[in-house]
Amino acid sequence: MSEQTISLISRAFFVAAFVLLALSVLEAVAHQMGYTILRNSFLPGRLLEYAAILLVFVVAILLRQIRDGVKPA
After folding, report:
1. What whole-number distance in Å separates Cα of residue 54 and Cα of residue 17?
2. What is the pTM assigned to this prediction?
3. d(Cα 10, Cα 62) in Å, to the nearest integer?
4. What is the pLDDT of residues 5-61, one digit of tens each?
């Protein structure tokens, strides 16, 4: 894959992780008030797990980019 594609995927995962984080917080607040946003298909904790998984992939991609940049020619 090209460097631009990898960078785009990393940014997309980063944005998706923060969207899931925000949705998790909103769902937790809604649960406290007796409502639900996602109709009990995902609990807030599960959304946080998915966000963490995406962030692990982002960190792995960034570390790979750093390793490739530091490698001697």
Report:
1. 6
2. 0.83
3. 8
4. 998 999 999 999 999 999 999 999 999 999 988 887 888 999 999 999 999 999 999
Burial grade of 6 (CB within 10 A; 0-12, 13-18, 19 or more) = middle
Please say if the pLDDT value at position 71 is more than 80. Answer: no
55, 17 contact by CB (below 8 A)? yes
Q: How far apart are CA 8 and CA 28, in angstroms?
A: 30
Helices 3-32/44-70 angle, 10° precision: 160
Largest CA distance in the chain: 60
- Can you read off the two tokens belonging to residue 2? 């090209």
